[in-house]
Amino acid sequence: MHSDMLLAAADALPLPGRDEVRPDTQVLVGFGVPEELARFATRPDWTVYVPGHAEEARQSVLAATTRAERAYIHVSAESNAEPRRGATDGFVLVREGGAGVVLAVGATLDPVLRATAGLDLAVLYTAVVRPFDEVGLRTAVLAAEHADVILVEPCPRGTSAHHIAGTLVHVPHRLLALGGPDGLDEAELARAVREFMR
Predict the structure, then answer these.
(1) Helix, strand or coil for residue 48?
(2) What's the rounded Cα separation, in Å, for the pair 58 and 62?
(3) Burial letters 97-121, b for 16+ CB under 10 A, else e
(4) What phi and psi values does residue 149 have, to the nearest 5 degrees?
(5) Which of 109, 123, 131, 119 is nearest to 44 (CA)?
(6) What is the mean pLDDT of the chain?
């Protein structure tokens, strides 16, 4: 089991008496429990980070403490090969495409990239799921030829689906929500994506 993300998050936490943090700041770090991630994703006024790399875990803690957030940071044993700049602020475009949009959350990015290789799909990545980046999603969907969205997150299937529906309420669209073990299984991802595509 790799615990690089957990160690990076722990190392970045402020130390009492050494680091100055606003008293209303709350940072909780959870390790490998998707149901806990889903629970925090429903709480209003919480920022929920799902880093996919140790450096993103460190950036998540620093962002939460700098902004005096109430934040839950979900780390896991799975990791992407490299961190993505800006992923703790919202969706980052990783691959361009016109036939639809894939939203990859946290450590699902590398399996998503391999499973969708050769397909004309835009791939967006994020390490923060709450607040939900409505502008980033809407921009990508409106730029695509088809308003088809594939959500892949490391928590129970459909955890963020209602945010997508709310963001695209005025845009006729189709949504495929994948999560849990399916979000990390490359073969299952590839099969589900190909069956969903037009």
Answers:
(1) strand
(2) 6
(3) beebbbbbbbbbbbbbbebbeebeb
(4) -120, 130
(5) 131
(6) 92
